Amino acid sequence: MANLWRIIDVLQWTAEYFKNKGIENPRLDAEVLISHALGIDRLGLYLNYDRPLDEEERSRIREYVKRRALREPVHYIIGKREFWSLEFDVAPSVLIPRPETEVLVENVRDRIIARSYSTVVDIGTGSGAIAVALAHEIPSIKVVATDLSFEAVLLAGRNAVKHGVKERIDFVVMNLMEGFGHKARFDVIVSNPPYISDKEFKSLPPEVRDYEPATALLGGGPDGLDTIRRLMREAWRFLKPGGMLCFEIGFGQSEAVLRYAAGIKEYTERAIIKDYAGIPRVVCLERG
């Protein structure tokens, strides 16, 4: 880059560079990374488009561009991701929250409010996005958030502090529900479990396959549903009568999940909720 590159010059160069690298949203990624490097919002890039960049700023931008060119996700580079209109810290120890998971939060929120539920468990909390969003939305609930990763639990705890809900969420390191006593009972168990098959994993974009934690993606078995089957088998034991198990699923998995759930007599009601693209995305099972 030349000595007197302006913001607009660097923005245009970076967008073109990302495009040539096959990055899906080259202009948007360039805007996000450069605005983060400069400590301004994306609008500020255009309000200050003619401003020259100093060497420190150019160096910081070069580092971000280099990382993105290697297909590292933008949100790991900037260390944050918006979810449910809240900003969450993210890191390679946790899955980056997806917009489709807001469908899960929305439906669980509505069920909690409609039935005056008060106790919630979030299995595989990751960044804490689901647990924090629900606690932030509904001040009356108490949440237990679990994850197998100690690093994830620490990060989720920081996100709970950031959004003022730490006092109502207990974070616990455990695999699924293995640490709960046999008398533990909750109104709602919610989860965005791993559900990617080994075959599908190989064809994922490099941003996901090479950077996000495989334990948060790979569901086990040829169809990726081993973890979900175990969740369905075990969750009813920790639900109060009338309690709900709600979890996210992947594309094309709804029929197999409902068939399996139909064989567990403790679940008396079963529902599938579609996402905004019309894809079955959330399963809710009610314990009788």
Automatic annotation (TrEMBL):
GO terms for molecular function: nucleic acid binding; peptide chain release factor N(5)-glutamine methyltransferase activity. Keywords: Methyltransferase, S-adenosyl-L-methionine, Transferase. The keyword Transmembrane does not apply. SUPFAM superfamilies: S-adenosyl-L-methionine-dependent methyltransferases. It holds the Pfam family MTS. Its EC number is 2.1.1.297. The keyword Transferase applies. S-adenosyl-L-methionine binds at G124, T125, G126, S127, G128, D147, N192. It catalyses: L-glutaminyl-[peptide chain release factor] + S-adenosyl-L-methionine = N(5)-methyl-L-glutaminyl-[peptide chain release factor] + S-adenosyl-L-homocysteine + H(+). Transmembrane segments: none annotated. Substrate binds at N192, P193, P194, Y195. Residues 9-79 form the Release factor glutamine methyltransferase N-terminal domain. GO terms for biological process: methylation. Methylates the class 1 translation termination release factors RF1/PrfA and RF2/PrfB on the glutamine residue of the universally conserved GGQ motif. NCBIfam families: hemK_fam, RF_mod_PrmC. Belongs to the protein N5-glutamine methyltransferase family. PrmC subfamily. This is Release factor glutamine methyltransferase. The lineage of its organism: Bacteria, Pseudomonadati, Thermodesulfobacteriota, Syntrophobacteria, Syntrophobacterales. The gene is prmC.
